[in-house]
């Protein structure tokens, strides 16, 4: 079943990395910075979570992190319907196959 998603995930990663960062109105948002921990962004629909993620990516690029090391991956794609939690590892596998220098 996993192989069904692999090519879609690979293409979405390639497309996402080629996509320019959108020009957005910057918001002053406080966020806790905990080293080596993931940042969870939660909120109601249409609250600006995706825009905030794009803002974070732009900040990382400004700090010198190359764009190919940053990935915004949207699961809102009918080709990914039926994916289960155990299939999420495919995103990392495909990302690292395309960008092995970012594995560490």
TrEMBL record:
SUPFAM superfamilies listed in its UniProt record: P-loop containing nucleoside triphosphate hydrolases
Coiled coil: none
Residues annotated as domain AAA: 36-96
Entry-linked InterPro entries: AAA_14 (IPR041682), P-loop_NTPase (IPR027417)
Name of the featured protein: AAA domain-containing protein
Organism expressing this protein natively: Nitrosomonas eutropha
